[in-house]
Give the backbone structure.
Amino acid sequence: MHVALVNALYPTPLEPKIFGGAEMVVRQLAEGLVARGDRVTVVRMALDGRRRTEEANGVRVEFVPVRNLFAPFGARHHALAHLAWHAIDDRCFAHPEVAAVLDAARPDVMNTHTLNGLNTHVWQLARDRGIPVAHSLHDYYLICPRCSRFKDGHVCATTCGSCAVLTGGRRRRSALVDAVVSVSRRTLDLHLQEGLFGTASRHVIHNVPNPALHPEPMEAIGRPLRIGYLGRFSEEKGVRLLADAVGRLPAGTVRLVLAGNVTNEQRAALAVLAPGAELHFLGFVAPADFYPQIDVAAVPSLWEEPGALVLLDALAAGRPVVATALGGLPEMYEDGVTGWTAPPEAEGLAAVLRRLVAAPDLILAAHRVLREKPRRAMADVVDAYRDIYRTLTPAS
């Protein structure tokens, strides 16, 4: 089978930039398909505007220019420029080089992922050539230009007027998709509620953790309790909520270990929220080096997080989680067994943390479950995708 994977970014030796988890999932999927004997062509943006081809671990990667005012994931521009960018992205067409790649490669199936900068018009290009289309949901790009359904510190309960206007084209084009795959049931349901993918077959394939992570030993819980946060220090990730909650606990009971790129301003803001707490900033650190330094991982997301890899990685490292019940997070752990659900507000989160401080044996029990629990691997994800591709290409 020849599969065309389309994603905004795809890390290669010459272009290793990574913005989020989707491109890592797509790379693992591509290489997994190649290992099964399939041919894979990847279409991604050329951030420098230069059309070229690169071979990476048996995958042919086609870089195509962005047909818009500028490439996404770069420097911020004026608000009006971003508004114009989104309008062009929604109403105009994919770069002609995408059609040229499809004509040359002639794949059996096309599986699109994040399409920022590539345009949902790629679905029409595939249908014009008789190529069935599967689309994978990693965020909310199709129903929200910000991709997050999060604004002014709150989850968007409904689609606002501006989002509806700026996503009208991609919503209509979703009718061209033959199969939709989501990393969580909640994310799929939110799209279906918006009327997308009316005739497509529907599938949920949850993400899997980093295969390099394994349960780290945990024989006892000392004082203070070490609560870890790994990720971006952006508002929707809830790191300020976490600091506020920790600041409500008695001094000396908790140590908050924070990993990720953080500015001096962000450090100061978090210290203000938790003036009596011990905050330890690690900076950028590899997950394998992070998890041995904590007892429990916090995923305090304030947005409908589709499929947080950081939560799955924590569980794979044998660290139970405290997470909010938003997006796909509750689908990834067993409440009261391998983690604990907290409301997305400071006092409610603090109450959960107080309980764990008072009863650290709960954490040890969760760790023992995680140590013995079977885990899914990328091979399972690849097999699930291949099954979907076969339903779309019965003659291949």
About this structure: Residues 135 and 180 are 5 Å apart (CA to CA). The mean pLDDT is 94. The longest helix spans residues 21-35.
